[in-house]
Amino acid sequence: MRRNIVHKGAGSLTYAIREIVQVGQRFARLGVNVTWENIGDPIQKGEKVQPWIREILHGIMDNDSSWGYCDTAGVCATREFLAGEVNKRGGAQVTPDDIIFFNGIGDAVAKVYGFLRREARVIGPTPAYSTHSSAESAHSGYEHLTYELDPHNGWLPDIEDLRMKVKYNDAITAILLINPDNPTGAVYPREVLEEIVAVARDNDLFVIADEIYTHIVYNGNHTLHLSEVIGDTCGLVMRGISKEYPWPGSRCGWIEVLNRRCDQVFDTYVQSLLASKRLEVCSTTAPQMSIPLVMGDARYPDHLKTRARVFEQRAKEACSFFKDIPGIHVNCPNGAFYLTVLFEDGVLNNRQSLKITNTQIRHMVEDQVKGVANDARFVYYLLGGKGVCVVPLSGFYCKRDGFRTTLLECDDEKRRWTYQTIADAIREYLR
């Protein structure tokens, strides 16, 4: 081309959770029966949406207005409902104008980072969820900025690490937190959220909170929203229905803007997000219309509690398969539906392997692992040798070795077989 048309950050647009599927599909074509543990899709793993939720959705499709455009910011009645839900909690108060809908959280992430000034950086946790880290890196044209989550403290944020990085990098404009966390399953207690908010307040930053798993908490933990602890600091909260109903194919998410009127620059930035949605007209109408009817239904709290109990049981079950394996470290998740297995420092190297009897697949794996991180090497051998597809921790912008699997499989026998297969593969790999 006469001019270079490639955005400087284009190379940062990586998503290991989906990219490993391409490798898995190549193995599948050669006869490997792949068990997909790479992505958080409850429907794909067999969960059925409750009949009463389905009935509500059927009724919405019979409503002619569900087939048309809605207001750019979202369906007015839904934004009024959500604003009311925020205000019931106490803490920061919002109006319906502070709710903006997007086509899923991925769309919201792209807009939130994409409409920041390029010099304005967002620091996020490591391990980092790929959608956030890639979007931030692509927006800035530099490596994503991170603060540490400590695996030896339940994967909670290292607040001192965060504080020092914010102090000595004045390009940092916002702090990202994911609560409950993906990929670790950590749930942040009030004091941790308050400390993060304090760092933001003391340095005149705003906070971005990804709360997509906010109602999937267990092991005695409780949902705590950013709005309850943020005080008068500016913030953006990301929510959605994909994990709660669950309805990932709806691509329906929204942001709750907190304290926008406390800072004119922040308010102008939020207005730019809404202006960007006007260029698209609006986000999907029908899923938005379902929110007051489903979340406002008297059966919804029990629906959430039932699902949380299911994932609590599965989290404990999964940990039982890994807890006694030398060379790894596992924290039982307290929220979301993932399990992160951490390899201890120094136990992985670039010479380890699993036995693969199929010569063609073995050669493919050997080609795939050239030059990759040590945890990715294990993941590719697990995929080619055992047919289980997980995601390496290095794919979450992390320097620690490990991998993430899910708690989603609804077939009890298949789920236990999967964890046992992974556990046996770890033992074989580390021999």
Write the layout of secondary structure elements.
Elements lengths: L15 H14 L5 E2 L14 H11 L14 H13 L10 E4 L1 H11 L6 E6 L3 H11 L4 E6 L5 E2 L1 H9 L4 E7 L11 H13 L3 E5 L24 E6 L12 E6 L5 H15 L6 H11 L4 H23 L5 E3 L7 E6 L15 H10 L5 H13 L1 E2 L1 E2 L9 E5 L5 H19 L1
Please summarize what this structure is.
With 431 residues, this protein is an alpha/beta fold. The chain has 2 domains: 10-47 and 301-430, Aspartate Aminotransferase, domain 1, CATH 3.90.1150; 51-295, 3-Layer(aba) Sandwich (Aspartate Aminotransferase, domain 2).
Can you give a write-up of this model?
The chain is α/β, with parallel strands linked by helices. It has 2 domains: 10-47 and 301-430, Aspartate Aminotransferase, domain 1, CATH 3.90.1150.10; 51-295, Type I PLP-dependent aspartate aminotransferase-like (Major domain) (Aspartate Aminotransferase, domain 2), CATH 3.40.640.10. 40% of the residues lie in helices and 14% in strands. The chain has helices spanning 16-29, 51-61, 76-88, 104-114, 130-140, 159-167, 190-202, 264-278, 285-295, 300-322, 359-368, 374-386, 412-430; strands spanning 35-36, 99-102, 121-126, 145-150, 156-157, 172-178, 206-210, 235-240, 253-258, 328-330, 338-343, 388-389, 391-392, 402-406. The strands form 3 sheets. It has an 8-stranded mixed beta sheet with strand order 2-9-8-7-6-3-4-5, with helices on both faces. The protein has a 4-stranded antiparallel beta sheet with strand order 10-11-14-13. A two-stranded parallel sheet has the order 1-12. Helix 2 (51-61) packs across helix 9 (285-295) and helix 6 (159-167) packs parallel to helix 7 (190-202).
